[in-house]
Design goal:
With 403 residues, the chain is of the alpha+beta class. It is built from six helices and 21 strands.
Length: 403
């Protein structure tokens, strides 16, 4: 046919050949375009079929006990801080401690001029001895008078007078004995001792300084070991804390800035008797051993306490919980590798783990790739770097906690 056309075209005059050539070219272009666009549509259809499966990362929901951790900012405070002041007017004769020194309970810190106090003690002791001698003599006289009265040699009034003398001297002895004790107390005021073990602060006097009651403190002693940390917890956690305290000791951990978490271990020792209505919190104190004096009064620390435990809680990675317009939900992967949407309620979140209600343990849920999903969509487990075999994350790592 083509040959016929060519032979026939040879017989056609030259000025009439061009319309035939143009028509043949148009037909050829149309056939080529039809073939090209048909092939492209087939490739797009195949690509669309492949894109209907979404790559995701999944895991299994777990059931375990989860402690409810409360993290708060705390302030280190001393259990005892005492300003020691003089109780008598005197002169400092000896300073027995240094600034910043650790002192023990009962340790002598300052000696005051005690000469007058010692003289008063001796005088009071001598008066007591005189009273004892006078009383003993009065008792002997009364015994003799009793015998004479029985023999009718003295009257009843004479006997009563001797008995009165004994009673008077016994009372005087009691008065002077108390005076002697007062003198000894005054003598003790000239020795200022620490009432507990602690650390000495700035010493404001030196030997020869005149001190008197009402003057500035001689030194401040602060107890360092053990030491307390004050912090606050939300009022909603108060019932759980009270229940835990009734059952036994409630452990607390603390850490300093740039230090290892939970480096210090203590127990709750105090819960305030009222809630701060402004902040909705309640003040709590915990006591810590501080043998190496790493905690210092006034420091800020991070405190962690777990007043209650969520028993048999359903736990999933926090990123698996999606937030919708009105509810929270997770995507569950079925045996047919299609996802369904399950509404859940969020109970507690901590360290990348979420405790939820509304989901059974062991469910295979989507952790990564949920933003591309719709209910009923097909999914495929993504091969993560370092994984082997391509098994679902939750199935391929049974026995391990969800990351």
């Amino acid at each position: 046919m083509v040959g016929f056309i060519i032979r026939d075209m040879n017989t056609v005059p030259h000025h009439r050949r061009w319309p035939w050539i143009a028509g043949a070219a148009i037909i050829g272009v149309a056939l080529a375009g039809w073939w090209y666009f048909g092939t492209s549509r087939n490739q797009e259809a195949k690509g669309a079929g492949r894109a209907s499966t979404t790559l995701v990362v999944t895991t299994r929901s777990e059931s375990r006990d989860v402690p409810v951790r409360i993290v708060a900012n705390g302030t280190v405070t001393a259990l005892q801080t005492v300003d020691f002041r003089p109780q008598v007017t005197s002169t400092v004769t000896k300073v027995h401690i240094r600034e910043g020194q650790n002192v023990g309970a009962g340790e002598l810190m300052f000696s005051l001029d005690a000469r007058e106090a010692e003289a008063n003690v001796k005088k009071a002791a001598a008066q007591v001895e005189k009273d004892k001698a006078d009383l003993a003599n009065a008792k002997r006289n009364h015994e003799r008078n009793t015998e004479l009265f029985q023999q009718k040699f003295i009257s009843q009034s004479a006997l009563d007078a001797s008995q009165n003398q004994v009673d008077t001297l016994a009372g005087q002895l009691a008065v002077d004995t108390a005076g002697a004790e007062s003198a000894r107390v005054g003598r003790a005021y000239t020795e200022i001792r620490s009432t507990f073990a602690g650390r000495a602060g700035t010493i404001s006097v030196r030997e020869g300084s005149l001190v008197q009651p009402g003057s500035n403190s001689l030194v401040t002693i602060t107890q360092i070991d053990p030491i307390a940390v004050a912090f606050t917890i939300p009022e909603k956690e108060l019932p759980a804390l009270q229940t835990a305290l009734a059952a036994g000791k409630v452990p607390v951990s603390a850490s300093v800035k740039d230090g290892p978490p939970g480096a210090f271990k203590g127990v709750v020792t105090f819960v305030d008797n009222s809630v701060d209505s402004t902040s909705g919190t309640i003040k709590v104190k915990a006591e810590f051993a501080n043998t190496h004096a790493q905690l210092w009064p006034g420091m800020y620390v991070n405190v962690e306490v777990s007043p209650r435990m969520l028993r048999n809680a359903t736990v999933v990675p926090a990123q698996a919980v999606q937030t919708g317009p009105d509810t929270r939900f997770v995507y569950i992967v079925g045996d047919d590798n299609k996802v369904t949407q399950r509404t859940v309620s969020l109970v507690y979140v901590d360290s990348g783990q979420a405790v939820i209600d509304g989901l059974d343990p062991g469910a295979r849920i989507v952790v990564e790739g949920a933003q591309n999903l719709r209910p009923g969509g097909a999914v495929q487990e993504a091969q993560r770097e370092g994984d082997k075999g391509g098994a679902p994350k939750g199935e391929g790592r049974k026995g391990k906690k969800a990351a």
